[in-house]
Amino acid sequence: MNQMMFGRRQFLKGSGALVVAFAMADGLPALAQNVAAQKSLAADAVDSYLVIERDGKVTLYAGKVDIGTGARVAYRQIVAEELDVPIDRIAMIEGDTALCPDQGGTGGSTGIVNGGMQIRQAAASARQALLVLAAKSLNAPSAELSVADGVVRARDGKSAAYGELIGAAHFDVKLDAKAPLKDPGQYKYVGQPVQRPDLPAKMTGRHTYVQDLRLPNMLHARVVRPVAIGATLADVDESSIANIPGARVVRIKDFLAVVAEREWNAVRAAKALRVRWTGGGGLPGSDRVHAAIRTAEIARNEDLIKEGDSAGTLRSSTRKFAATYEWPAQSHASMGPSCALADYKPGSLTVWSSSQGTHGLRRNIARDLSIPVEQVRVVYMDGSGSYGSNGSDDVACDAVLISRAVGRPVRVQWMREDEHGFDPKGPPQLLDLRAALDASGNIAAWETEAWLPENTPNLRSRPMLAFLAAGIPQPVGQSVAQVQGNAYPSYELPNMTATVHWLKSTPLRPSNLRAPGKPGNVFAIESFMDELAAAANRDSLEFRLAHLKDDFGAGLLKRVADKMNWKSRPSPNRGTGNVLLGRAISYVWYKHMDNRMALGLEVSVERATGKVRVTRIVAAVENGLMINPDAVKNQVEGNIMQAVSRTLWEEVAFDQSGVTSVNWASYPILTFPDAPAIEVELVGSPRDKPLGAGEAASAPVPATIANAVFDATGARIRRVPLTPARVRGALVSQRQT
Amino acid sequence: MANVTLRVNGRSQTIDADDPNMPLLYALRDNLELHGPKFGCGLGQCGACTVIVDGNAVRSCQTPVSQVQGREITTLEGLGSPEQMNKVQAAFVAEQAAQCGYCSNGMIMSATALLAKTPKPTEAQVRQALAGNLCRCGTHVRILRAVMRAANA
After folding, report:
1. Host domain of residue B49
2. Would the pTM of this model clear 0.90, i.e. be above it?
3. Do B74 and B128 reside in the same domain of the chain?
4. pLDDT, tens digit, for every residue of A112-136?
5. Which chain B residues are closer than 8 Å to A198 by Cβ?
6. How many domains does chain B have?
């Protein structure tokens, strides 16, 4: 499907109507510079989202992007449904700032919930406008018209196709919040597991990722990063690359790069270049990071919840418990290092990027480089999955600075050590939990005290590495998204307080990493729930149900327990032998308002090595209206699998200077031999509103694994990752006590 | 400048290589403008760059271009097209066994090489054959299903 490939060759102005012509004759996306003036971008105008051509082809312009989630097909399903056109007649362009309305960044599993519903309203509004035109054209009352496959029919048999009706005009209507929506009972496209249109090209090497894009007259570039974060560039020996054909140095203050005509020459020049850096560093190191967090400067404190009197209840209680949980810094660790291309010319800058927020990136580049924003265009192209803000915005700024310096189009791809070393990180988290049990073994009081990095007020996005190094002023601060989510249990407890100490800073530059903060917070609270259940000598499922008044949530727990053939008993299991088996079950109401879900899993633990294998996972996830149930399932499975990886293996190691876990050997992730079987049940009805697809499923995984390890071994591990060394250490110290 | 002749997807092509140690990956992507093999790590750790050389799955980021002259190199493009996919590619589509698809090249190349030698592998053998191929989106379950489907096709 060529229309997937961003192949806008030209914009033609037809007789009043905007016509988009697609062609991929030379395989290159259009380099058009002056298209913006012709295309509506207003968020409230139907023309911003939908263009219908004379031949009836529909093009959807989405501000949200599909960086591997399958949203691309879901958006088309929505339009096909509300507009009554066949899905294969709908082309789509995503995230091109010159063509697509700004629907906000893509993230937090909100693409369908927010962006998709906006598109649904645009399609419904368009259909309504088309019916008004048809009533006039067919000379029939609009109530007597019916639509199928983009053709409007009157009772007398006369008909008009959408292309004929709109052919010579813009819609010129606003999104109408009252435009009638399809009755979910009539859904034809929505709710179907339609196959993704991009996979045949991706599975055969025909898809053009941003990493694959080549521009005429382009140079390849690599950035040379400092050995210590924040170091000053003291000296560059350009003669050290004199023997590499075409290679030359680009230096802007402490920003250093090499360019070459051929990619390999840029790669080896970056490696060969002799550079002297001074200063920088000053990090606490990953071994000390949680101690450093505990004494870090606090910007402000916030009570997330304060119900009853937790402090008083704890004071007077005789069955009190406390535990500290630590979550490490983690990397987005994208499979493909970030890549971008830029073409900087006087009066026009075009950037090709897999950014999850092209409009935001455009505004920031324009602001920081003092370019009028209308002269900047960011064209979205698919990249490697990013799971939040990885290096894609940074590499775009690298490319812009280098293109400006050399006066030619430039392609920059980060190397593996750049991506692992310099992608903004999911920040480390520290949580102290306290609770009291009453005489019947129920929770009488709960307190969470969390140390989390604050979102700097009014900061649009994190500072860009290239601009920092080049001394280009930009707003300073940090941006981490809603990391405080689910910092207290999803159960109804009396006397509950959750307090966040918002920290001024965190050691490594942070950003939003999949389900920001929630896997770490739920690791703490759902682990502590099991600690309390074990202290009360109660079965962990029964203990949860006893504290859960919500019938729907309880139903999810029971469905998972049934599938696991759950037998009531307290933990731990206290098995014997070399391989110990454990199980656990947990519950979360994601963000206390989005998806409710239950997760159960089974593990085996090798006593000798400490190696944990998750052997089976069962999940029941509330998902409301699912536009494409298979795409939702893929997201849920992927989030679970990635969370298993984050729990068992992932920690960004750093010393005083910078990140030391800069490849897949030092930052390992889950591999095929260890991938668990996953059974997912999605719960929802077409009459519900859609809920976020995917990231909720990341949240309960870490605690459930730690609880299953406790069930198997009796060892309670309160720090992620549960590497073989850490688990073996816990088993050894358990035997010694 | 040295000329290197490579036989890729059944065609012989001569490229300029400044450096005989240039990894094959750069010849394929930069000189021959193929999109199948991907740069993932440059260290032979992730498998995104996998191609098939004389029937074996090989990490093109670790293979000097001078060592594969005259050998039969197959990339993802050489296995099939969107209109005519090979059975592994078709199985990946049928199972919707991808999210971002960046690792898919390595998965499909490794699986194709496996099935050429072991047409009816057990799931454990598939897991072992893909042990050096990393997937970050977490589509492992679907990829395993796709390879088993291809084996039974």
Report:
1. 2-78
2. yes
3. no
4. 888 889 999 999 999 999 999 999 9
5. 101
6. 2
